[in-house]
Structure formats: C-alpha cells, structure tokens
C-alpha cells in the first residue's frame, strides 16, 4: 500500500512546475559550482606548490648551518583540499600562512589571492546549495502535502478507504524524499562528473568515502525540512498559511540564526583588539629589556661582546628564552581568544539544523575553523620536533655551547648552537595529517546525532498531528 | 474608481494572516537585533577611542622627530548598522611611517576577520529578506488569486477598465507595504537614538531618510515583480512557486554565484607578484639612496648610544660629533628619497586595492539584474560603508601622510637639524665620556669598577628619563573627512535609478500581460 502511495506522489509531482524548476536550478547551480571550483582549485594548488617549494628551498639553504635551522624563520602554507568542493568552510577568511622558527611563531596571516571585499559572500559549495536552495525546495514540495490535499478533497477520499493514516504519512514522506532526492543526486552527479573529468582534482578512496558520507548527511538534512513541511502542513487548514509559516521558519533558521552568530559571539565573548595586543607586546618587550639590562637574568646579559670576559651567554640564553616564551604566549593567547569567540557564536547557531549540517560537512571535508585549530596544534607539535632535532644535532658538536635560544646574531658570535651543516633530508618538514574517515565520523558524531534527533522530533510531531488532522 | 479599488484591497490586506505575520516578524526582528547592533557599534567606538588615546599617549613620549610614526584609525560608522558593506572587512588602521607601508599583499587579521564565517547582519538584511518575501506574498495572488476566486470576472464585467483595476491594486499593495517598512524604521530609530554614544549629524539624518526612501522603492519593485508573475499565470499556486524560486535566485544564488565567478574570472595579483613589485620598488629605493649617498662616508670614530623611545623605536640618546656630522649629511639625502618611495608603495597598495574593487564590481555587474542585490548595494552606498567610502578614507590617510612629512621637514629644517635623530646637543656625549673614562677606567679594583659602571649607567638612564619629549602641540591631527552628501548622491543615484527602472519595467510588463489576461 505504501508503495502505491509513494508512486502516486511521485507521478503527481513529476511534471509539476516545482519539480522541473528545482531540478533545472539545482543542475545549473551545481554545474557552475563545479566549473568555478576546478579553476579555483587549479590556481590554489599551483600557488601552494610554488610557495611550499620556495619555502623548502630556503630551508635547504638553512641546513648549511644548524643554528640557521634553529633561528631563521620559514613559512608554512595551508594545503588546498579537494573536498572544499563540498564544504569550503570559509577558509578564505581563515589564516593560511604561518611563519615560524624552532623557537618562535609569528601571528598567522591570510596570504593568497583573497579579496577581503568578497568575505561577506558564501562560496557556492555543496553545503551552500543544499542548505540554502534544496532545503527551500524541500519546503516548497512539502508545504501543501496535507493541507493541499485536504483543500482538493482528495485526502478524505484516500482515508475513506482501508488505508491507515500512518501508512499515508509514510508514503507521502517517502514520495517527497524521492522528489527532493532526485535534484540532489542529479546535481551532485553532474558536479562530480565535471570535477573528475577535469583531471585537476584528485579524489582518492578516502575522499570518495567522505563524499558518500556527506551525501547521506545531506539526505538526513533535507529530510528534516520535508518533515517540517509535513508537520506545519498538518497543523494548518489552508496551504497559504502553511507556506507563510514555513517561509518565516526558513528565513529564521537559515538566514537570521547564522547571521546572528556574529553579534552573539561579540557580545558574549569580548576579545581585545589587535592594536591592544601589539601594545601589550611592546610593553612586555620594554620591561624585558629593562630587566635584562638590570641583571635579572644574570650579570652582563645585555652584552653582545665577543670577548669571553665581557659577556654572559647562559644569562642571555635565559633572558631570550623568557622573551620568546612571553611573545609566543601573547600571540597564542590572542588567537585562542578569537577562535573561542567564534566557537561561542558557532555553538549558538547550532540551534539551526543548517549550522549543524554545515559544521558536520566541514569536519568530513577537513576544512574550516576546526581544521585551523587542529593545524595550529600540529604546527606547534612540529615546532617541538624541530627543536628536539636541533637539540640532538647540537649535542653531537663538542664546539657548541649548547645554549638553545632565539637570537641568531649571538648564536653566530658565541657558537651557542652548532655551526655544523646538517643533512637536509633529516630535517623535520611539516606535513599536515589528514583525518581518516573513522576519525571524521567520531568528531562529527554529535552533529549526526543532532540531525537524526531533529528528524525524529519532526517525524513524531507530524505523526501525532496527522493522526488528529481533520480531513473534512 | 482606482481609489475605491485601492481602499478595498488595502483593508482586505490588513486582515490577512500573511500581513499580520509579516509585520509582527519585521517589528520583532528590528526590536531584537537593533539594540545588539547598536551595542556592537558602541563597543567598536570604545575600542577606537582607546586606540586613539593610546596613540596620543605615545606621541607625548616622543623625543626625536625620526620616531614620529603614529597610527591613524578609521572611526566606526554609525550608519553601518543599516548597511554593513565592507566596513569590518578591511584594515581600519594605518601606520604613518616614511620607511614602509603596511598591508601590501597580506590581509592583516583584524580582530573580526575570523568572524567572517558568520554572514553579516544589518538592517538591510532584514529588509532584503523579510520585507521582500512579504512583498512577494502580498503580490503573488493579486490577479491569479482573484481569478481563482471568481471575483475578477465580476469586477471586470462592470464598467471598470482593466488599467483602473491594476493601478488600484498597485496603490493598495504599496500602501500595505508602507506599514511594515515604516514600522521597522521607527523601531530601529527608537533603538538607535537613546544610545549616548550615538549622535547623528544632519548629513547622516538625510542619508537615513534616503535609506527609507530606497527601502520603499525596493519594496515597490518586488511587489511589481510579484504582480507580473501573478498576471502571467492562471493559478496562484504556480505564481507562488515560481515567485519563491525566483526570489531565492535573486536574493542569494545570483549574488553568491557572481562573487564566486568573479573571484576566479577577474584574477587579482598573487602575493608573489605583489612581493615582486614591492621588492622592485624597495630595490630601486636602495639603489637610488646608495647612489646619492656614495660621497657621504663614516670616518670610523662614530659612536652612538641608543635608548628605547616612543612607538617601539629606539633613538640615539647620545651621539658623538662624528656621528652627528655624518647623520646631518646623510638624512637630508635619504629621507626625501624615502618619502618619494613611500608614495610609490602607496600607489602599489592602491593598485592592488583597485584590483580588489574591480573584482567586486564584476560581481556586482553580473548580479546587478537582481533588485535585491541593487538594494543591498544602495544601502551600503548610502551608509558610506561601500568601497567608495573606504577609498575616501585611504585618500584622507594619504593626505595626512603628506602633512606629517611636511611637519617633520619644517621642524627639522629639511632633516638637517640634529633634533631629527637625537635630543642631545653637541658636546653632551664627550662630557659623558669624560665621566666614564675618568671614573671607570681609572678604577683598579674590579668590584669598584663594576660599581662605578653601574653609577654611569644609572646616570645615563636618568638623563634619558629627564630628556623632555618634543613639544608637539602643533602636530597635525588626523581628521577623518567622510564623503560629502553630493559624492554619496552621485554614487547612489545610478543604483537608485536602476531600482526605480526595474520597478517601472515590471509594472509595464504586468500591465501588458493583464490587458491580455483571460479572466474566466
């Protein structure tokens, strides 16, 4: 029985204006998205390999002296991800450039062909198309699923027969999911065909598995809107009222809640401005210089004289270590504060299923703010590895004073760090570790659970509502 | 007749569920979000005042003219609560330094850059989404709905002309939509005005009035679009579905896709290219500087003792005569060269900024067929938060750089005065050295030597502390001059014109369509 209800729903809607429009628009937007993404990804990969090769070339040059490896800064760029096709994660406004040495790390920057004037626009990735456009289409399909049939008079005819109400509801739900699923799947298919045919975007097994997961997530997400539409439809008697309520809900959930994340973040979590942070650094450095010259770290710590009697390398080492630690602390603190501010906003916007869906997709694609935090963590681990490497190589040199601190000039004069060359192939180089599918699933499990919960709640609500629906 | 129809329609509209929901939602949203936006503005203003005060404090500590590198800040714009534009996305501060220009090729992270993961919230968003949907909902069944109910043929079976019916409905629709627009604006202003940190100038009031007018024009254009769809279809369900898809396309898909496309099809310089150009300029500066300072040599006996000064720079607290003579010959040559090349660096930065603006303009052109995008642009133009407003700020800063350079030039007699680089006078160093040589070198005992060294250092530190700061009473202050009303109007009028034309066009098409409409 459910089968025939589903078939009836599908055939009824198949040639309707809303299906044709959603299918055409979905394919059009997915196509544009695919073509633009290929171009963007090509450019990004080109820029990334050029920059990384340049950075490695510098590092190779540094390998001629161990103390250069320790004190000279080199660059780390964030790798472009193929799955940014699915969820770009606003990475154009997230720092992608890190400058660091074995001891200190600078404030990360955004470097690339970014246009800050376009920060306010979404990238047309899958998440945008699905969360904005297909959810809208889902509402347009389902807004009159119950009240529309009631107005036509056909609902009481169906229920006059031996068909139980829950079967009708289930049949409608499955039929509507099919109608929404067809533009989704065809759109994704067209997009994937364009992207794989271009040969510029390499998708491995892990990526395909993640794409499949994102596809399932998308169906889960769209199902929420189908069920929401059915629920509101079974609470109203006129389809116009149902449309008005659903439009209002859509605007609030998809447009207003994400936008209000910014003001919520800024209100709940105040962050000192960059200017104030710079002032803090300057004040700290002034006090440090005073302390250094006054002998807090030892006598003569301020002297850089090459004569042994006039200088105090261990004291200077202590002083500079303190300076580097203080600088790193202020920088890290500020970045932690701004990421915490965004996190507060994101947590608030999770009352909308759109944000939950977006954040789950970002976890699977390995993009976005979560990736930035993880990248920072990996980079500081890399820094520690680099420092250990320098320490172990330095220990092998009997001529060095074995004082590891961040001042190249005195490392040169006093040989506080070995001047010996090192084999470039042994120098640790940064490689971003990707999350495996299992790990992504683990991180996204809450999001998936919440989406499933939304589904259950709306299904239960429409079930109860439809059971009591007055079909006359 | 038109007025009768309009009155009937208007009163009917007021009773509908969609109108009630629309007005209530509009008012509630303004009521909730306006105080938050105002609070955000107040916080930005507080930060700005704090930054300016800190800059002033540093200026009071300056001891040599060479260290004068103030930072100028752009004051936050109160009208940005109406249209956010590009206000928070670009550098709102600039360091005035003849040695360098910051921010070429890298996007310095403002505190808010990470917050770009959230789309902007301003009054224009509420209008372009909520009010435009309301306009569409009011308009979609104006003709097709009446046809389905059967009342259209009754109306036209009398002596009423078709054009009277359509015009009546148009007037009614506009009258209906004035209610939520006005209510929203009033609630917004009621939330804005009580704030103590908000004081609106006459020009800003005029801009707010223009924004109100622009919102009415926008809402009229969307209503006319809905009217057109209503006149083109026989069933109101079809015109609703078509209208909603069209609305979504115009409101979001078109603008985001056009930005996406523009970012790839009108490329901007990569950071490498920019660094290359930057290096070319700095290399040219170095070679010109080297060329012209070939004859100026040190004689080997220069000595200088530095101390920490204002703005994080060190300065020469004590110089001996050779150092002073060397620098008095050097700076009048090198500093004007630096000023000349800073101009070139500024041009580089401006060129890059123009590239960014051209990309945005391409996006706006592609998306310009959407009245919703036109409205958003118009609101940011009127608020002064679009790229034109930002360019005005950049020009201000450029002029201010010139003022600062001229000031320093005049106070140091074209960089020849020693006060450009040191507060000490000729002979001060030699006198200090006498003290040092006499006491420290003569001391035979190591401990005594160390103690005497400490006293000399203490004396030096005392001298540094007691050196008075420069008297900068007449130092030029940076005043931000926002765009004049004529400049704003010049930029706004074309966009407003397009919006009005769009509305008129939609109405003309619906007129033609209605004349041929089958009312049975």
Short description:
By secondary structure, chain A is mostly helical. Chain A is built from 15 helices and two strands.
Textual characterization of the structure:
The complex is a heterodimer of chains A (472) and B (520). With 472 residues, chain A is mostly helical. Chain A has one domain (2-467). Chain A is 68% helix and 2% strand. Chain A is built from 15 helices and two strands. In chain A, strands 1-2 form a two-stranded antiparallel ribbon. In chain B, a hairpin with a 5-residue loop joins strand 3 (304-308) and strand 4 (314-319). Chain B has one domain (2-272, 341-407, 475-515). In chain B, helix 9 (271-292) runs antiparallel to helix 10. Chain B is mainly α and 520 residues long. Chain B has helices at residues 2-14, 17-61, 123-139, 144-149, 151-157, 162-192, 202-232, 236-265, 271-292, 321-367, 371-383, 387-411, 428-442, 446-466, 485-515; strands at 71-73, 93-95, 304-308, 314-319. The model of chain B has no long low-confidence stretch (mean pLDDT 88). Chain B is 68% helix and 3% strand. Chains A and B meet through helix 2, helix 4, helix 9, helix 10 and helix 11 of A and helix 2, helix 3, helix 8 and helix 10 of B.
- As laid out across the biggest beta sheet of chain B, the strand order is 1-2
The count of β-strands of chain B is 4
Enumerate the spans of chain B where pLDDT stays under 50 for 5 or more consecutive residues: none
Mean pLDDT across all residues of chain B, rounded? 88
For the record, give the distance between the C-alpha atoms at the N and C termini of chain A, rounded to a whole number: 22 Å
Biggest interface and residues each: A-B, 87 and 82 residues
Counted up, domains of chain B total 1
Task: Walk across the major sheet of chain A and give the strand order.
Answer: 1-2
Total of domains of chain A: 1
Q: How does the major sheet of chain A shape up?
A: 2 strands, antiparallel
- Provide the β-strand percentage band of chain B: under 5%
- Number of E strands of chain A: 2
Percent helix range of chain B:
55-70%
Main sheet attributes: strand count, strand direction, barrel closure of chain B: 2 strands, antiparallel
The portion of residues forming beta strands of chain A comes to under 5%
- What overall form of chain A do the CA principal axes indicate? elongated
Structural class, from helix and strand content of chain B? mainly alpha
Distance between the termini of chain B: 22 Å
**Mean pLDDT across all amino acids of chain A:** 91
Low-confidence parts of chain A? none
